[in-house]
Design brief:
With 270 residues, the protein is of the alpha/beta class. 40% of the residues lie in helices and 14% in strands. Strands 1-2-3-4-5-6-7-8 form an eight-stranded parallel β-sheet, with helices on one face.
Length: 270
Amino acid sequence: MSQTIIPKLGVGTFRLEDDAAYQSVTMALEEGYRHIDTAQIYGNEEAVGRAIKDADIPRDELFVTTKVWNDNLNQRNFLPSVKESLKKLQLEYVDLLLVHWPSPPKGESMNTYLKELANAKEAGMTKEIGVSNFTIAQLEEALDVLPKGSLFNHQIEVHPYLTNEKVRAYCKKHGITVTGYMPFAVGKVLKDKTILSIAEAHGASAAEVVVAWELAHGLITIPSSTKRKNLATNLKSLGLTLSAADIAQIDALHCGDRQATPDFAPEWDK
């Protein structure tokens, strides 16, 4: 099994473009984040790369993730697209390379694009490989295709309104780390009365409570923000310990309120 450790709290860059992405990553690195998450489809790898370069932090202190977009899930485009990502990021390798969605537009088999994913690791373009937005059935197929023990991470939507417990349990059983994205459900859970009540009891913010809840479940999480104050607040969650009762109350908020629902999404596990 891999010895790679992902920093539990990273900074996401979804929906951040150009200068907004540059400033967010710059502030995050200044505040102490060392895990940065981006993707080809975000259109911000170049800005993220500039922020990383300008921060001048030793490469081995950083953990950088990017994701291969649907159009590139074929033998012709996969590796060239990763090379392009590395060029934009101004990096020799990323720490984690993910297949963003199991949705190649021309229906290429998982066997085809996951073998290219494994080839990217073999070529030294990435230290670890993983997937994102896969169902349990798709994870099973991926485990059959990829070299044993190489499926390192699965990135899925996880927040108090969508706990995704079945998929998380499957990953835990098979030694796959899980990154929960959209932890705040686009801000919805930050207004939740239960979460606000727990936050008040701890003298903390709703955001700190939500991030602490994700971490208490052994998840990695990647909230994003363009405000330095929010980036700093999210980091404070590393020092917040929720009680078992707090965690159970937040778990009970699950209502299947999924935010990421593109028309090419798989048929999700219920």
